[in-house]
Amino acid sequence: MVHMPAIPEYSSAELLSKMDAMGMPNELRESFRKCIDFHTYAAPGMLIGVFMVDYALTLLGKKPEDKIFVTCETTKCLPDPPQIIMHATTGNHRLRVLPIGKFAMTLTPFSAKESAEGIRVYLDKEKLKKYPTISSWYDNSPSFKPATMKKQLADEILAAGQGMFSHERIKMRVTHKKKWNSVTCPVCGDQVPEYMMEGDKCAACGSMAYYEKIT
Ligand SMILES: [Zn+2]
Fold this sequence. Notes:
By secondary structure, this protein is α+β, with helices and mostly antiparallel strands. The chain folds into 2 domains: 12-173, CATH 3.30.1330.130; 178-215, no CATH class. It has helices spanning 12-22, 26-39, 44-60, 80-86, 132-138, 146-160, and strands at residues 68-72, 95-97, 104-109, 115-123, 165-173, 182-184, 191-193. The site of zinc ion has 8 residues, from loops. Zinc ion (ZN) is lined by residues 185, 187-188, 190, 201-202, 204-205.
């Protein structure tokens, strides 16, 4: 008989059956299933993000298919759930990701005005006092041991649900589509929208240069 070492984290199937056992509503469980699949694994931050999107939609009284703009305040994990659950993507301009480093997101329903009102949901440090494993993971504390504590972390996230968040009402300026002209960069000869030029050259020849050609 082969001795199998204990798996340090739950498989997707184990997580989903835990959700079933908790009596989680089908729609939310389905969001988890799709997001785990999209993200390729059940990252803790992504699981928190699924609860965050669900909570934000409930607060707004909106459905996932409504036209809502999302701004994520971290590049880590959190941008995935709004893409899958709400189809707010960078490509359709309904998802903006700001590298601020906070576990928070704002949701603002479409507004034809100069500003849009909505809500900001964030992981609340005060509320995390009740969830020491999430807290030590979020703090990147040495007391969180990934080798042995991943199951405990997932259990705590499922138990906490929306209980780890707080929210505030916000408004933000919005920019609407404007007419634009196409120009040719005199340095590289490529075509770009004029408003994206950095003075006399395109951003790739300027501040966003990120590659060198190999000859
Ligand atoms: Zn150029």
